[in-house]
# Entry
Amino acid sequence: MTLSPGDTSTEFSKHIPGLIRRLADTGDLPDEELCRLLEQLFCHEAEEYRDILYKTARKVSVQTFGNKVYVRGLIEFTNYCRNNCYYCGIRAGNKKASRYRLTKEEILLCCREGCALGLRTFVLQGGEDMAYSPQDIGDIVAAIKQTWPDCAVTLSIGEHSREDYLLWRQAGADRYLLRHETADNAHYGKLHPPKLSLKHRVQCLYSLKELGYQTGAGFMVGSPGQTIECLVKDLRFLKKLQPEMIGIGPFIPHRDTPFASESPGSLTQTLVLLSIVRLMHPKALLPSTTALSTIDEKGRELGILAGANVVMPNLSPDGVRKKYMLYDNKRSEGSEAAQHLDQLASRFAAIGYTIDFGRGDAPSFR
Ligand code: SAH
# Structure
Protein backbone atom coordinates (compact mmCIF):
# COMPACT_ATOMS: atom_id res chain seq x y z
CA MET A 1 0.00 0.00 0.00
CA THR A 2 1.34 3.46 -0.81
CA LEU A 3 0.39 6.44 1.27
CA SER A 4 -0.32 9.62 -0.57
CA PRO A 5 0.65 12.78 1.33
CA GLY A 6 -2.99 13.88 1.18
CA ASP A 7 -4.27 10.91 3.18
CA THR A 8 -6.21 12.07 6.21
CA SER A 9 -6.41 9.98 9.35
CA THR A 10 -9.84 8.74 8.43
CA GLU A 11 -8.66 7.96 4.92
CA PHE A 12 -5.84 5.97 6.38
CA SER A 13 -7.87 4.17 9.01
CA LYS A 14 -9.61 2.01 6.45
CA HIS A 15 -6.21 0.52 5.62
CA ILE A 16 -5.66 -0.65 9.20
CA PRO A 17 -7.28 -4.11 8.96
CA GLY A 18 -5.24 -4.83 5.82
CA LEU A 19 -2.03 -3.74 7.54
CA ILE A 20 -2.78 -5.92 10.57
CA ARG A 21 -3.39 -8.85 8.24
CA ARG A 22 -0.12 -8.23 6.42
CA LEU A 23 1.73 -7.96 9.71
CA ALA A 24 0.23 -11.28 10.80
CA ASP A 25 1.00 -12.97 7.46
CA THR A 26 4.56 -11.74 6.99
CA GLY A 27 5.68 -10.88 10.55
CA ASP A 28 6.85 -7.43 9.51
CA LEU A 29 6.04 -4.10 7.86
CA PRO A 30 8.25 -1.27 6.65
CA ASP A 31 9.07 1.31 9.34
CA GLU A 32 6.88 3.94 7.71
CA GLU A 33 3.82 1.70 7.91
CA LEU A 34 4.58 0.58 11.47
CA CYS A 35 4.73 4.24 12.39
CA ARG A 36 1.36 5.05 10.81
CA LEU A 37 -0.19 1.93 12.29
CA LEU A 38 0.92 2.86 15.81
CA GLU A 39 -0.26 6.45 15.36
CA GLN A 40 -3.68 5.25 14.30
CA LEU A 41 -4.05 2.50 16.88
CA PHE A 42 -3.12 4.91 19.68
CA CYS A 43 -6.06 7.16 18.73
CA HIS A 44 -8.90 7.12 21.18
CA GLU A 45 -11.44 6.36 18.42
CA ALA A 46 -9.58 3.28 17.11
CA GLU A 47 -11.24 0.86 19.57
CA GLU A 48 -12.75 -1.25 16.82
CA TYR A 49 -9.36 -1.63 15.11
CA ARG A 50 -7.59 -2.39 18.35
CA ASP A 51 -10.03 -5.22 18.93
CA ILE A 52 -9.11 -6.68 15.55
CA LEU A 53 -5.42 -6.37 16.46
CA TYR A 54 -5.81 -8.04 19.89
CA LYS A 55 -7.86 -10.85 18.43
CA THR A 56 -5.36 -11.50 15.65
CA ALA A 57 -2.42 -11.50 18.08
CA ARG A 58 -4.26 -13.78 20.50
CA LYS A 59 -4.95 -16.23 17.69
CA VAL A 60 -1.25 -16.35 16.76
CA SER A 61 -0.30 -16.93 20.40
CA VAL A 62 -2.85 -19.73 20.79
CA GLN A 63 -1.65 -21.36 17.54
CA THR A 64 1.87 -21.66 18.97
CA PHE A 65 1.25 -22.15 22.69
CA GLY A 66 -2.39 -23.19 23.05
CA ASN A 67 -4.65 -21.54 25.62
CA LYS A 68 -1.87 -21.79 28.19
CA VAL A 69 0.13 -19.38 30.24
CA TYR A 70 3.58 -20.24 31.58
CA VAL A 71 4.38 -19.28 35.19
CA ARG A 72 7.77 -18.25 36.55
CA GLY A 73 8.67 -17.64 40.17
CA LEU A 74 10.25 -14.20 40.50
CA ILE A 75 12.84 -13.91 43.27
CA GLU A 76 13.91 -10.31 43.79
CA PHE A 77 17.07 -11.12 45.70
CA THR A 78 18.72 -7.70 46.09
CA ASN A 79 17.65 -4.09 45.75
CA TYR A 80 21.18 -2.70 46.02
CA CYS A 81 22.28 -1.21 42.71
CA ARG A 82 25.37 0.63 41.49
CA ASN A 83 23.42 2.40 38.73
CA ASN A 84 21.30 5.50 38.65
CA CYS A 85 18.70 4.94 35.94
CA TYR A 86 16.38 7.95 36.19
CA TYR A 87 13.16 5.90 36.13
CA CYS A 88 14.04 3.23 38.66
CA GLY A 89 13.03 3.24 42.32
CA ILE A 90 16.04 1.18 43.44
CA ARG A 91 18.60 3.50 41.78
CA ALA A 92 21.76 4.07 43.83
CA GLY A 93 20.82 7.74 44.37
CA ASN A 94 17.53 6.92 46.13
CA LYS A 95 18.59 7.36 49.74
CA LYS A 96 15.07 6.60 50.95
CA ALA A 97 15.10 3.03 49.65
CA SER A 98 15.41 0.52 52.44
CA ARG A 99 18.05 -1.89 51.13
CA TYR A 100 18.23 -5.67 51.48
CA ARG A 101 20.01 -8.61 49.98
CA LEU A 102 19.20 -12.31 50.36
CA THR A 103 21.75 -14.97 51.23
CA LYS A 104 22.22 -18.06 49.12
CA GLU A 105 20.30 -20.05 51.74
CA GLU A 106 17.37 -17.61 51.65
CA ILE A 107 17.28 -17.81 47.85
CA LEU A 108 17.29 -21.62 47.99
CA LEU A 109 14.41 -21.52 50.47
CA CYS A 110 12.39 -19.47 47.97
CA CYS A 111 13.12 -22.05 45.28
CA ARG A 112 12.13 -24.87 47.62
CA GLU A 113 8.81 -23.18 48.26
CA GLY A 114 8.35 -22.43 44.55
CA CYS A 115 9.08 -26.00 43.60
CA ALA A 116 6.47 -27.24 46.08
CA LEU A 117 3.98 -24.83 44.50
CA GLY A 118 4.68 -26.46 41.13
CA LEU A 119 6.95 -23.79 39.61
CA ARG A 120 9.73 -24.97 37.29
CA THR A 121 11.41 -21.66 36.42
CA PHE A 122 13.09 -19.33 38.89
CA VAL A 123 13.90 -15.81 37.82
CA LEU A 124 16.62 -14.25 39.97
CA GLN A 125 16.29 -10.51 39.55
CA GLY A 126 18.13 -7.69 41.23
CA GLY A 127 20.03 -4.47 40.95
CA GLU A 128 23.68 -4.54 39.93
CA ASP A 129 24.84 -5.44 43.43
CA MET A 130 28.61 -5.87 43.52
CA ALA A 131 28.49 -7.40 47.00
CA TYR A 132 27.90 -10.72 45.24
CA SER A 133 31.07 -11.74 43.39
CA PRO A 134 30.63 -13.41 39.99
CA GLN A 135 31.57 -16.64 41.76
CA ASP A 136 28.83 -16.09 44.39
CA ILE A 137 26.22 -15.78 41.66
CA GLY A 138 27.65 -18.87 39.94
CA ASP A 139 27.45 -20.80 43.22
CA ILE A 140 23.82 -19.81 43.73
CA VAL A 141 22.90 -20.88 40.18
CA ALA A 142 24.81 -24.17 40.53
CA ALA A 143 23.16 -24.95 43.87
CA ILE A 144 19.67 -24.42 42.41
CA LYS A 145 20.43 -26.56 39.37
CA GLN A 146 21.95 -29.28 41.51
CA THR A 147 18.98 -29.43 43.88
CA TRP A 148 16.28 -29.13 41.19
CA PRO A 149 17.82 -30.34 37.90
CA ASP A 150 14.49 -30.18 36.09
CA CYS A 151 14.07 -26.45 36.79
CA ALA A 152 15.18 -23.55 34.62
CA VAL A 153 17.13 -20.65 36.08
CA THR A 154 16.77 -17.18 34.60
CA LEU A 155 19.08 -14.35 35.63
CA SER A 156 18.12 -10.68 35.41
CA ILE A 157 20.92 -8.74 37.05
CA GLY A 158 21.96 -6.20 34.47
CA GLU A 159 25.13 -5.51 32.53
CA HIS A 160 28.23 -7.60 33.19
CA SER A 161 31.29 -8.83 31.33
CA ARG A 162 31.07 -11.61 28.78
CA GLU A 163 33.36 -13.56 31.08
CA ASP A 164 30.84 -13.39 33.94
CA TYR A 165 27.96 -14.29 31.65
CA LEU A 166 29.99 -17.32 30.55
CA LEU A 167 30.72 -18.32 34.15
CA TRP A 168 27.00 -18.24 35.02
CA ARG A 169 26.05 -20.08 31.86
CA GLN A 170 28.55 -22.81 32.76
CA ALA A 171 27.11 -22.88 36.27
CA GLY A 172 23.81 -23.81 34.64
CA ALA A 173 21.87 -20.59 34.01
CA ASP A 174 19.43 -21.15 31.15
CA ARG A 175 18.00 -17.73 30.42
CA TYR A 176 18.78 -14.03 30.89
CA LEU A 177 16.46 -11.04 30.90
CA LEU A 178 18.00 -7.70 29.99
CA ARG A 179 15.54 -5.20 28.57
CA HIS A 180 17.22 -2.87 26.10
CA GLU A 181 14.86 -0.13 27.50
CA THR A 182 14.91 1.94 24.27
CA ALA A 183 16.66 1.44 20.95
CA ASP A 184 17.00 5.19 20.31
CA ASN A 185 20.35 6.60 21.39
CA ALA A 186 19.13 10.07 22.35
CA HIS A 187 16.19 8.61 24.25
CA TYR A 188 18.53 6.20 26.03
CA GLY A 189 20.49 9.26 27.17
CA LYS A 190 17.32 10.82 28.62
CA LEU A 191 16.59 7.74 30.73
CA HIS A 192 20.11 6.96 31.94
CA PRO A 193 23.16 8.77 33.30
CA PRO A 194 26.01 9.35 30.80
CA LYS A 195 27.97 6.39 32.18
CA LEU A 196 25.44 3.95 30.74
CA SER A 197 25.11 3.44 26.98
CA LEU A 198 22.75 1.73 24.60
CA LYS A 199 25.80 0.42 22.77
CA HIS A 200 27.03 -1.47 25.82
CA ARG A 201 23.57 -2.82 26.69
CA VAL A 202 23.18 -4.12 23.14
CA GLN A 203 26.65 -5.69 23.26
CA CYS A 204 25.60 -7.51 26.43
CA LEU A 205 22.48 -8.82 24.67
CA TYR A 206 24.52 -10.17 21.76
CA SER A 207 27.01 -11.81 24.16
CA LEU A 208 24.15 -13.48 26.00
CA LYS A 209 22.72 -14.84 22.75
CA GLU A 210 26.10 -16.11 21.62
CA LEU A 211 26.63 -17.89 24.91
CA GLY A 212 23.45 -19.87 24.36
CA TYR A 213 21.15 -18.15 26.84
CA GLN A 214 17.48 -17.89 25.98
CA THR A 215 17.64 -14.13 25.92
CA GLY A 216 15.05 -11.52 26.79
CA ALA A 217 15.05 -7.88 25.65
CA GLY A 218 12.24 -5.33 25.92
CA PHE A 219 11.21 -1.83 26.82
CA MET A 220 8.85 0.35 28.84
CA VAL A 221 5.89 2.00 27.14
CA GLY A 222 5.40 5.71 27.80
CA SER A 223 8.79 6.40 29.36
CA PRO A 224 9.59 10.14 29.41
CA GLY A 225 10.68 11.41 26.00
CA GLN A 226 9.51 8.32 24.10
CA THR A 227 8.09 9.02 20.63
CA ILE A 228 6.44 6.79 18.05
CA GLU A 229 9.75 6.88 16.17
CA CYS A 230 11.48 5.47 19.27
CA LEU A 231 8.93 2.66 19.40
CA VAL A 232 9.47 1.83 15.72
CA LYS A 233 13.21 1.63 16.48
CA ASP A 234 12.41 -0.74 19.36
CA LEU A 235 10.40 -2.96 17.03
CA ARG A 236 13.17 -2.88 14.43
CA PHE A 237 15.82 -3.70 17.03
CA LEU A 238 13.81 -6.66 18.35
CA LYS A 239 13.31 -7.96 14.83
CA LYS A 240 17.08 -7.89 14.32
CA LEU A 241 18.04 -9.38 17.70
CA GLN A 242 15.36 -12.10 17.59
CA PRO A 243 15.21 -12.57 21.37
CA GLU A 244 13.44 -15.60 22.80
CA MET A 245 11.65 -13.42 25.37
CA ILE A 246 10.32 -9.87 25.11
CA GLY A 247 9.33 -7.89 28.21
CA ILE A 248 7.01 -4.94 27.68
CA GLY A 249 5.30 -2.97 30.42
CA PRO A 250 4.11 0.57 31.04
CA PHE A 251 6.48 3.08 32.63
CA ILE A 252 5.19 4.01 36.08
CA PRO A 253 6.76 6.90 38.02
CA HIS A 254 8.43 6.39 41.39
CA ARG A 255 8.14 9.24 43.87
CA ASP A 256 11.82 9.31 44.84
CA THR A 257 13.28 9.46 41.32
CA PRO A 258 13.91 12.34 38.90
CA PHE A 259 10.79 11.18 37.00
CA ALA A 260 8.49 11.48 40.03
CA SER A 261 6.09 13.90 38.33
CA GLU A 262 5.98 12.23 34.91
CA SER A 263 2.79 10.51 33.74
CA PRO A 264 2.55 6.74 33.58
CA GLY A 265 2.44 4.87 30.27
CA SER A 266 -1.02 4.00 28.99
CA LEU A 267 -2.73 0.63 29.24
CA THR A 268 -3.98 0.85 25.66
CA GLN A 269 -0.61 1.69 24.19
CA THR A 270 1.01 -1.15 26.10
CA LEU A 271 -1.60 -3.63 24.86
CA VAL A 272 -1.22 -2.42 21.26
CA LEU A 273 2.55 -2.91 21.46
CA LEU A 274 2.20 -6.35 23.03
CA SER A 275 -0.02 -7.41 20.13
CA ILE A 276 2.24 -5.94 17.47
CA VAL A 277 5.25 -7.65 19.03
CA ARG A 278 3.31 -10.92 19.14
CA LEU A 279 2.56 -10.64 15.41
CA MET A 280 6.22 -9.88 14.67
CA HIS A 281 7.45 -12.71 16.95
CA PRO A 282 4.90 -15.54 16.90
CA LYS A 283 7.14 -17.87 18.97
CA ALA A 284 8.46 -15.41 21.54
CA LEU A 285 7.75 -15.77 25.26
CA LEU A 286 5.86 -12.60 26.13
CA PRO A 287 5.05 -11.80 29.75
CA SER A 288 1.95 -9.99 30.85
CA THR A 289 3.86 -7.88 33.35
CA THR A 290 3.35 -6.79 36.95
CA ALA A 291 3.52 -3.17 35.76
CA LEU A 292 0.52 -3.84 33.53
CA SER A 293 -1.44 -5.27 36.45
CA THR A 294 -0.35 -2.33 38.59
CA ILE A 295 -1.91 0.25 36.27
CA ASP A 296 -5.08 -1.78 35.75
CA GLU A 297 -6.87 -4.28 37.95
CA LYS A 298 -7.48 -6.49 34.89
CA GLY A 299 -4.06 -5.79 33.35
CA ARG A 300 -2.77 -9.36 33.55
CA GLU A 301 -5.80 -10.78 31.74
CA LEU A 302 -5.82 -7.99 29.16
CA GLY A 303 -2.16 -8.72 28.43
CA ILE A 304 -2.93 -12.39 27.81
CA LEU A 305 -5.87 -11.44 25.61
CA ALA A 306 -3.53 -9.19 23.60
CA GLY A 307 -1.15 -12.12 22.91
CA ALA A 308 1.08 -12.50 26.00
CA ASN A 309 1.73 -16.04 27.29
CA VAL A 310 3.86 -15.77 30.45
CA VAL A 311 3.31 -14.46 33.98
CA MET A 312 5.89 -14.04 36.72
CA PRO A 313 4.26 -14.10 40.15
CA ASN A 314 6.34 -12.92 43.07
CA LEU A 315 8.24 -15.55 45.05
CA SER A 316 10.40 -13.21 47.13
CA PRO A 317 10.22 -13.57 50.92
CA ASP A 318 7.28 -11.63 52.37
CA GLY A 319 9.44 -9.25 54.37
CA VAL A 320 11.26 -7.83 51.33
CA ARG A 321 8.50 -7.61 48.71
CA LYS A 322 7.60 -4.05 49.51
CA LYS A 323 11.25 -3.05 49.34
CA TYR A 324 11.74 -4.02 45.70
CA MET A 325 9.82 -0.92 44.64
CA LEU A 326 10.85 -0.22 41.05
CA TYR A 327 7.85 2.13 40.75
CA ASP A 328 5.05 3.42 42.99
CA ASN A 329 2.43 0.93 44.22
CA LYS A 330 4.09 -2.07 42.55
CA ARG A 331 1.76 -4.98 43.23
CA SER A 332 2.94 -8.12 44.98
CA GLU A 333 -0.16 -9.32 46.84
CA GLY A 334 -3.14 -11.51 45.88
CA SER A 335 -2.81 -13.06 42.44
CA GLU A 336 0.63 -11.40 42.08
CA ALA A 337 1.97 -13.70 44.81
CA ALA A 338 3.25 -17.16 43.89
CA GLN A 339 1.50 -18.41 47.05
CA HIS A 340 -1.86 -17.65 45.41
CA LEU A 341 -1.55 -19.49 42.12
CA ASP A 342 -5.12 -20.67 42.69
CA GLN A 343 -6.32 -17.05 42.39
CA LEU A 344 -4.27 -16.61 39.25
CA ALA A 345 -5.63 -19.87 37.83
CA SER A 346 -9.24 -18.87 38.41
CA ARG A 347 -8.67 -15.47 36.81
CA PHE A 348 -7.21 -17.20 33.76
CA ALA A 349 -10.00 -19.79 33.73
CA ALA A 350 -12.47 -16.93 33.45
CA ILE A 351 -10.88 -15.92 30.13
CA GLY A 352 -10.46 -19.49 28.88
CA TYR A 353 -6.79 -20.09 29.76
CA THR A 354 -4.96 -22.51 32.04
CA ILE A 355 -1.61 -22.32 33.80
CA ASP A 356 1.14 -24.46 32.26
CA PHE A 357 3.48 -25.76 34.96
CA GLY A 358 6.19 -26.91 32.55
CA ARG A 359 9.62 -25.29 32.24
CA GLY A 360 8.27 -23.34 29.30
CA ASP A 361 11.42 -23.09 27.21
CA ALA A 362 11.37 -21.06 24.01
CA PRO A 363 10.16 -23.33 21.16
CA SER A 364 13.60 -23.23 19.48
CA PHE A 365 15.24 -24.54 22.71
CA ARG A 366 13.05 -27.56 23.23
N1 SAH B 1 19.10 -4.52 37.11
C1 SAH B 1 18.39 -5.36 36.17
C2 SAH B 1 16.92 -5.47 36.52
C3 SAH B 1 16.19 -4.17 36.39
S1 SAH B 1 14.54 -4.13 36.98
C4 SAH B 1 18.62 -4.83 34.78
O1 SAH B 1 19.32 -3.84 34.60
O2 SAH B 1 18.14 -5.44 33.84
C5 SAH B 1 13.68 -4.84 35.62
C6 SAH B 1 12.97 -3.89 34.69
O3 SAH B 1 12.02 -3.12 35.37
C7 SAH B 1 13.85 -2.86 34.00
O4 SAH B 1 14.53 -3.42 32.90
C8 SAH B 1 12.85 -1.78 33.60
O5 SAH B 1 12.42 -1.92 32.25
C9 SAH B 1 11.68 -2.02 34.56
N2 SAH B 1 11.45 -0.82 35.38
C10 SAH B 1 12.33 -0.18 36.17
N3 SAH B 1 11.77 0.96 36.65
C11 SAH B 1 10.53 1.04 36.16
C12 SAH B 1 9.47 1.98 36.27
N4 SAH B 1 9.60 3.08 36.97
N5 SAH B 1 8.30 1.72 35.61
C13 SAH B 1 8.17 0.59 34.90
N6 SAH B 1 9.13 -0.32 34.73
C14 SAH B 1 10.31 -0.11 35.36
